[in-house]
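ugh ok fine here u go
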Amino acid sequence: MEPKSFTILKGGHFGGFQGKGFEIASTTAVKWFEKYLQHVEVPVLEVTAA
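structure:
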């Protein structure tokens, strides 16, 4: 489904979880979330004690 985004990071399997790779991956993700999910209404989940 759309919208999609694709970013290629240099490095190995864990490259997106540390250092410069993490900075790029997390910034890219936040920008996508802000652009496409900022105006989405999400129902509130109420949690009650048992």
